[in-house]
Amino acid sequence: MKRFRFPLRPVAVLRAHRETRAQEAFAAAVHVYVQAEDTLARTRVRMRGLETALSQGRQELFHPAEAALLLADYRRESTREIEAEGLVITARDAMQKRRAEYLVAHRDLEIVERLEAKARAAHRYDNERAEQAEADDFAGRRRVEPFAITL
Predict the structure, then answer these.
(1) CA distance 16 to 52
(2) Contact 45, 81 (CB under 8 A)
(3) Is the Cα torsion angle 85, 21, 115, 124 positive or negative in sign?
(4) How many CB atoms lie within 10 A of CB 102?
């Protein structure tokens, strides 16, 4: 039986490496996105705490110095929240881009793998036909005893 050799094997290896790199880049982008979401969530929790403190300060005796400090903190956190939202949007866009790159690389690799599977099937079929032809030839070459006709 002839040994199978796939002529596009180097292409498959390169595409597999490309897919692996794209998958790693996608995983890193997902990690960055999750961290950005976490940062935004923590910032929003701090914002809600400051909002609560500001609203409670209005219900009690008014202290201008404390209110000014709380308002300054609220503005700083508001700015941080806006920045965190921007980071989340940027991270989401980067993640979607890396996901698209990974999907393209994965499809490219699948194409070569399907071609290899078809080539293996054709190789197997050709070898089985050759083996069957050898078996038929061997069976046809065996010495056949003439039939004795008796009356």
Answers:
(1) 54
(2) no
(3) negative
(4) 21
